[in-house]
Amino acid sequence: MCGSLIGDNGLGRPRLYCSAACKQRAYRARIWAGTPRQSSALRRREAHLACALMGKAACVHVLLTEPEPIVLQGSASALTEAALEDARELLHVLEHR
Question: How many Å separate Cα 26 from the centre of its chain?
Fold first, then answer.
């Protein structure tokens, strides 16, 4: 769960967790999955990503439609790449609902 190395005790089943605290964190993570609290967090994340994507798209639109350059060359491509990354993350979040 935490990424720590788990020692081999040699007897019985192999250990899955490095400590009782790690085991408890894993249990809480399993219980928390699918709760209304998590659903609310996912909706907030979706809304945040959608707003970020819209903001970046609006900036790209302004950069491409203004008669005079507003910022240095290459900014439109950087914003476009950032918007695409937000779109990919939003799609990933929506697919794993």
Answer: 19
So what's the pLDDT on residue 19?
84
Tally of structural domains, the chain:
2
40 and 25 in a common domain: no
Q: Are residues 84 and 46 in the same domain?
A: yes
Looking at residue 9, its amino acid is: N
Residues 89 and 77 in one domain: yes
pLDDT tens readout for residues 30-86:
777 666 666 788 888 888 888 888 888 888 777 778 777 665 556 677 878 888 888
SS (HEC) of 16-41: CCCCHHHHHHHHHHHHHCCCHHHHHH
Domain co-membership, 50 together with 69:
yes
The continuous run of DSSP H or E covering 56 comes out as helix 36-65
Token pair recorded at residue 72: 């240095």
> What pLDDT, in 10s, does the model give residues 6-16?
777 777 788 78
pTM score? 0.49
